[in-house]
């Protein structure tokens, strides 16, 4: 089971725009992947809405999938390792939560 703390969620939310830009995604594109609007992404990035555990896990999966598919994206790898890399999130682990 994945243990997600409030600090984990706050770290990702406070750096969401940086991660999104490092993946080369617009707010609309990330929203589309998550099944939300670009306005929802803007709300997360600007602390209008608090991120919940489900979105935290979904975004972590997106980040890790992006790293696997773009291993040359050093900026994203460094961000991930510095801020989030407690454990790798995969689709399989997400389904076991």
The proportion of strand residues reads under 5%
Number of strands: 0
Amount of helix: 55-70%
Mean residue pLDDT: 89
Total helices: the number is: 7
Name the shape in a single word. Answer: globular
Low-pLDDT runs of 5+ residues are 90-97
Structural class: mainly alpha
- The SSE order reads HHHHHHH
In angstroms, what is the radius of gyration? 12 Å
Distance between the termini: 6 Å
Largest sheet entry: none
How is this structure best described in words?
With 97 residues, this protein is mostly helical. Helix content is 67%, strand content 0%. It contains seven helices and no strands. The chain has helices at 6-14, 16-22, 27-34, 38-45, 53-69, 74-84, 91-95. Helix 3 (27-34) packs across helix 4 (38-45) and helix 5 runs antiparallel to helix 6 (74-84).
Quick summary of this structure?
The protein has helices at 6-14, 16-22, 27-34, 38-45, 53-69, 74-84, 91-95. By secondary structure, it is mostly helical.
Give the helix/strand layout.
Layout: H1 6-14, H2 16-22, H3 27-34, H4 38-45, H5 53-69, H6 74-84, H7 91-95
Descriptive key words:
97 residues, mainly alpha, 0% strand
């Amino acid at each position: 089971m994945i243990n997600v703390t409030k600090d984990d969620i706050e770290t990702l939310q406070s750096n969401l725009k940086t991660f999104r830009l490092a993946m080369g995604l617009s707010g609309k594109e990330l929203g589309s992947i998550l099944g939300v609007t670009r306005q929802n992404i803007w709300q997360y990035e600007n602390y209008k809405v608090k991120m919940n555990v489900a979105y935290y896990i979904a975004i972590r999966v997106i980040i890790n999938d992006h790293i696997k598919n773009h291993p040359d994206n050093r900026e994203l790898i460094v961000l991930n390792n510095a801020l989030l890399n407690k454990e790798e999130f995969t689709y399989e682990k997400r389904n076991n939560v």
